[in-house]
Structure formats: structure tokens, C-alpha cells
Write a structure and sequence with these properties.
alpha/beta, Rossmann fold, 11 helices, globular, EC 3.1.1.1, AB_hydrolase_fold, AB_hydrolase_3, Carboxylesterase NlhH, GDXG_lipolytic_enzyme
């Protein structure tokens, strides 16, 4: 049983039965994904926003996008847009994200384009990142048809999706230079070494060190850990200048806490405005099941507000 003594008592009542998410030597990837979907499947927000599907041409074939439309702008103007990248340790999850899609479309009054990017181990880095870049480029190329404002396109994601969003910003800066106004990095998975105090702890609830290192091995596909490219593990980036402003929230009972704090500090040192917010007693992605708890609701409201402010001032 993982150590839960530091978890917020109210949040603890929402905790799902505790067992390893990725027993690599025991389960096939298909079974891992099935168990993940059963345990942490989509929990609709109850909003009215349902997605429509578009299929675009990616670098190696079709990429599915799920588009959630927020309320109309006053006067019918173009909407801001969030390119959303789902979580799942780079090895599971799905772009038809009926939790975050309506949440951000309605809460931040925008269009959300959720990307069903390719997953490891079948498709290790850089497959998912290149799919995400294709979606970003498609949004810019089709801004008029989609009625979105190309000067207000943000990228964001949760957990591995947050890491993918950070890597996408680095890749775009160095290769595409398409306008990105903001990066919303929810407890991002950005450091394949986990060489921090929080990263060295072994018993975090939901997503522990052993599970995370196993997922990183699949995503990096044999690349030596110290040689991981910055596009895969943003913490490995040497130069963080020229990136979009960022908001990075994370719980203090999260494996990623210290690496996320350090990444925000490095962004600020490089001249990139980055807000880091730590939530006491919060475990990884705890605000999803704990949306009605005090700390869970606070985290969720904070990151929706950060996106809304980035879009609408």
C-alpha cells in the first residue's frame, strides 16, 4: 500500500484502490490500457459541449482530432483556441477527452482541439510530438474556416500531455515558429531522470517512480536516459528562452512536484513568464476525482482561470 499520510484528508476520500498502474512484466499494453480506462476513464463535466471529429494528415498518416466549441464570441468574432494533449504516461489515453474538452471550451470560452496522438511503445518519441505539431499547424492553416484567432492559440496538456505540450513549444520554437500565446502545463511529466527530492520518493499515490520510469523507457525506446532529447523530456532542454508564458500547477504529493517547480524557475530565469503553483495534500491528477473537494476545486478553478486570462485578459 502506498503512503497516503500526506494526502489532504478530504481528497483522500476520493482515492481509488491503490495498485501499480503499469506492472510492466506482467501485463500486455492492451490490458494496461483497458485497466487504465476502467480506473481513470473519462468523467464528463456535464456540460453541453460535445466534440466533432476531424481527421487530418499527419507525418505518418491520419491523425484524429476532437473539437469542442465554446460559446460564441460577442459579435461573432473569432475564438481563441487550445491545442489539448491528453495524459497517460505517453502510453495510454485518448484524444476524445470529454472531461477536459468541455471544461476548457466552456470555462475559458474557446475552441479546444484535442489530439489523438500516437502512443508508445508502438510509436515512441517523436511520433506523438510530431502528430501534435501537425495539429498545431493545421489549426493555424485553417484558422479562418475554424473561426479561431491565430494570435490566440495556446497549447496545453495534463501529466504526459503537459510534458508533450512543453516539448511541442520547444520543437515549435526551433523548427516551426508558429505563434503560440500560452502553455498550460498541468502537473507535466517532463523529467525522465526524476533526479529531485520528490522524484526520488518511491511511493507516490496514483503514479509512482517505478511506473513513471517504465513509461519513460517505452517512450524513449532505448535512448540512454541522460541523452533524452529536449523535445521528449523538456527538463533536458538547455535553452528555455523564447517560449510562451506558462502556468504550471502541481500537488505537493506528486512525483513531478520538484521537477515542475524547477522548470518554472528556469523558464523565469530565461525571461519567460511562468507561474508555478503548489497545492498542499494534492496527489497526481487528484482534482479530477476530487473536483468537489476544497483543494481539488481550487486547483481546477485556478488553471481554468489562468487559461481564460491568457485568452481574454
Amino acid at each position: 500500500m502506498r503512503q497516503l499520510t500526506r494526502v489532504d484528508p478530504e481528497l483522500l476520500t476520493t482515492f481509488v484502490a491503490d495498485d501499480p498502474m503499469i506492472p510492466i512484466l506482467r501485463d500486455t499494453m492492451a490490458l494496461i490500457r483497458k485497466r487504465s480506462a476502467e480506473r481513470y476513464g473519462s468523467r464528463p463535466m456535464g456540460g453541453s459541449t460535445l466534440p466533432r471529429k476531424e481527421v487530418i494528415e499527419g507525418p505518418d498518416g491520419a491523425v484524429d482530432l476532437y473539437i469542442f466549441e465554446g460559446p460564441e464570441q460577442p459579435g461573432g468574432g473569432a475564438k481563441p483556441c487550445l491545442i489539448w494533449l491528453h495524459g497517460g504516461g505517453y502510453i495510454m489515453g485518448h484524444g476524445e477527452d470529454t472531461w477536459n474538452g468541455p471544461l476548457f471550451a466552456e470555462g475559458a470560452n474557446c475552441t479546444v482541439i484535442s489530439v489523438d496522438y500516437r502512443l508508445a511503445p508502438e510509436h515512441p518519441f517523436p511520433a506523438g510530438m510530431l502528430d501534435s505539431f501537425a495539429a498545431l499547424k493545421w489549426a493555424h492553416d485553417n484558422a479562418q474556416r475554424l473561426n479561431i484567432d491565430p494570435s490566440r492559440i495556446a497549447v496545453g496538456g495534463a501529466s504526459a500531455g503537459g510534458g508533450l505540450a512543453a516539448g511541442l513549444c520547444l520543437h515549435n520554437r526551433d523548427n516551426g515558429n508558429l505563434p503560440i500565446c500560452f502553455q498550460l502545463l498541468l502537473y507535466p511529466m517532463i523529467d525522465n531522470l526524476h533526479d529531485t527530492a520528490s522524484g526520488q520518493e518511491v511511493d507516490h499515490p496514483v503514479w509512482c517512480r517505478a511506473d513513471s520510469l517504465s513509461a519513460w523507457e517505452m517512450y524513449l525506446n532505448g535512448t540512454p536516459r541522460a541523452e533524452a532529447p529536449a523535445g521528449a523530456a523538456a527538463a533536458r532542454a538547455v535553452d528555455l528562452s523564447g517560449l510562451p508564458p506558462a502556468f504550471i500547477p502541481v500537488g505537493d504529493v506528486d512525483l513531478f512536484h520538484d521537477e515542475d517547480r524547477d522548470y518554472a524557475a528556469r523558464l523565469n530565469a530565461a525571461g519567460v513568464p511562468a507561474t508555478f503553483r503548489s497545492y498542499p495534500g494534492m496527489f497526481h491528477a487528484g482534482e479530477v476525482a476530487g473536483v468537489n473537494t476544497v483543494i481539488g476545486g481550487q486547483m481546477l478553478r485556478d488553471y481554468v482561470a489562468a487559461l481564460k486570462t491568457a485568452f481574454h485578459g
